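User:
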Amino acid sequence: MRWLVLLLALVAGGCATPAFSAEQVRLTIEGEAVLDAPGLQSRAEAELSYTLSFGYVARTGQDAVSCWFARTGEAFEVDTRLWCGPVQVPGTAATTDWVPVPLKQVERNASGIRLEVQPPQVPAQGARSTPVGKLVRTDGRVTDADQGVGQAGPDFLAVLPDDGQVLDATSAMVRDDQLEVHVTGYSSPSVWPTAEGDLRAEHGVALRVLRVRVTRHSEVDSAFGQTPWRGWLPQPPELSLDVPGRRHRLPADRLPDHGSALIVYTVPVGGGPESLVLDTVGAKSLQQRVEVPTGVVVGEATKVLRRAPGPEEISVSTPMAVGASAGSVEVVRARLGRQRPVSSSAQYELATAGAGSALVELRLVGHGLPSVVGAGQTAPLFTLTVPGGQAARQVGARYGGDTVPVAVVYEVPEDVRSATFSVAAGTVTLPQLGPVAVTGGAAVEVPLDF
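Assistant: Predicted structure:
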């Protein structure tokens, strides 16, 4: 008997066992036993392996990705989903995400509930999904859903607030008429410190960090949100980061409207070029690509979109008289780009510049002129002349409720650096006033050297 006691003591002291064995854990849903819970975990892990291989999520942490039940109450009462991780959904923060895997009830008997694994519900890029409470395995292991920052695996991409860490200076830019993105910093660190801990790359991949400065060019004409459109509406552009073997969409809601952010991602060791891609979608779609960190343009470039769109405000004025009222019309902004909205039969449509051309939108304000609804009649009298004396074609206008249009839009050569604006003489018929003469004064130069 003494030898038996000694043998049991040696076994107990020499083996590291989990808090529970598979036989001791009785997982329940609504108080009824979950049948073949280990098999559910295994099948969910097999399903998730496809998600990882296609790059929908990335590994993060030193341990293999595994699937856990989420405890919802006392003892081992669990949710009707498995949670697989830890992973990182590209476009989120650098901390832990989890992929939920629904379980469908297929049988209920005196022994318990039999469940079937459904396809993983992979979160959209930039969207986090995490369980509430403790996670448990059928062998009794328990862990927290929040596991901080671990190792970054293939396809890892986090969008983080700019905390001011020093990067190598660089310059790359891509823009369309709605979104402008400048790459101002780049680094290839072995370790990247975050607020939740140090991030390292796992074997076979390397870390990269970009600092981007984002500007979204919003419209000031409130009618855009109320007036029906003709044809394609201006669609939000799509910004992506291309790395060897993968394209990552950068979620718009993770990037600031105006400001800087850090993009932390992994690339294969010894991989190929990286590039920032901007897709203008909708009417006459356009894709632009620049290498990072060099800023080299890949493929054909629309020259006007390699230039700045122009300052938020300018102020140049030219005389204008409407009947007996002598005043002026002021250009308060000049916007240079490829596409602009214009009025069309009480709707709006999107005008697009032709090959080798650009669109210039002049925002106008009248001073000392009659306040009547007459912009549709006066718009053709506003002229823009480019160097060489050629009149620019007016492609449209936006009218508002005054004598002067809110904006007029012209097609100009894409390399134009200045133009002259004037008001041509003519007779228009205005509500309340009837036929009136319109005259202008000396033309004024509008700077376009952006």
